[in-house]
Design a protein that fits this description.
The longest helix has 25 residues. It is built from 10 helices and 10 strands. With 298 residues, the protein is an alpha/beta fold. Helix 8 packs across helix 10 and helix 9 runs antiparallel to helix 10. The protein has 2 domains: 211 residues, Spore Coat Polysaccharide Biosynthesis Protein SpsA, Chain A (Alpha-Beta Complex); 77 residues. The strands form 2 sheets. It has an 8-stranded mixed beta sheet with strand order 3-2-1-4-9-6-10-5, sandwiched between helices. It has a two-stranded antiparallel sheet with strand order 7-8.
């Protein structure tokens, strides 16, 4: 097999990140121990972030799309151009904590040939740990037969900072472009495992992720609807129809129960903002699943 000419190809997909992209790229500048190339794919930003990359970082391979193609498609767009043995995916709202982070990732992958993809440790700006590793897929307790024979224990890692073997990602066809905003990382991880590889976690490679904390704290109703639809796209790809029916029934029952409980207890709860967030979440999930449920059996 011909060895790739570079250690790593770094891919960043950006959309209206003018306030963050410079910080992200500056942190990459400290990585000097590897042969590398960096791709930024701008998904038709309107805030001047593409100009920041073009004018301040001439060493970046910049691609500017005329329309927002979504996270998955934008990543796949530069995959044929990548010359690194590994692909390192980084969110533009993240920064490396110091020199050597990506080098640690490459050394980990070199030392663990059975790992096809691995995530790093993600922390919030205050240093607290972000949940970036999942040991189960959505709805997996209903789908044990579909998960037989998978390598390793980790189900998936957050796509904000992860490294993968280029030949593995090329073999499985990259990200599934049906996923627009949510769910593409867990789908990719499952397909890597089904290709015979494990998912890993590199604890000593630390990345600050600015977006993770705020996203969890405040997700609008439309966001919950998109998350729910992405989960059911994942189910349709990987689970049996009877499994999906069981998951949908359980999700609907849970949403109904939580909405009823919140309606009864809301007058007595002190944190009205938090309670309203929960109600927004479960109402959006219920409204998304009810039409899906009517297409199948109740």
């Amino acid at each position: 097999m011909k060895k790739n000419p570079l250690d790593v190809s770094i891919i960043i997909v950006s959309y209206n990140t003018a306030d963050m992209i410079g910080m992200c790229l500056d942190s990459l500048g400290a990585e000097t121990g590897l042969s590398r190339e960096v791709f930024v794919v701008d998904n038709a930003s309107t805030d001047g972030s593409a100009d920041i990359v073009r004018n301040r970082y001439p060493w970046i391979n910049l691609t500017v799309n005329k329309e927002n193609r979504g996270f998955a498609a934008a990543n796949n767009q530069v995959l044929p151009l990548c010359r690194g043995s590994y692909l390192y995916y980084l969110n533009p709202d993240a920064k490396l904590t110091g020199p050597g982070v990506i080098e640690k990732c490459v050394r980990f992958m070199d030392a663990n040939p059975g790992v096809g993809l691995a995530g790093t440790r993600l922390v919030n700006p205050d240093g607290s740990l972000q949940k970036s590793v999942s040991w189960r897929y959505p709805g997996q307790k209903f789908a044990m037969s579909e998960m037989e024979g998978l390598k390793g224990e980790i189900a998936c890692v957050m796509g904000a900072s992860m490294i993968a073997r280029t030949e593995v990602i090329q073999r499985i066809g990259g990200f599934d472009e049906e996923f627009i905003l949510y769910g593409e990382d867990q789908d990719l991880c499952l397909r890597v495992r089904r290709a015979g590889y494990e998912i890993g976690c590199i604890d000593d490679a630390v990345v600050v992720h600015y977006g993770g904390q705020s996203e969890r704290q405040s997700v609008p109703a439309e966001g919950w609807k998109k998350k729910t639809l992405a989960e059911y796209l994942f189910y349709r790809k990987h689970y049996l129809p009877e499994t999906i029916a069981r998951i949908r029934k359980a999700d609907l029952c849970k949403a109904r129960f939580r909405l009823a409980t919140l309606a009864l207890t809301m007058p007595f709860l002190g944190d009205g903002v938090r309670t309203e967030r929960k109600r927004t979440k479960y109402r959006a999930i219920y409204e998304t699943l009810k039409p899906l449920n009517s297409e199948g059996s109740n």
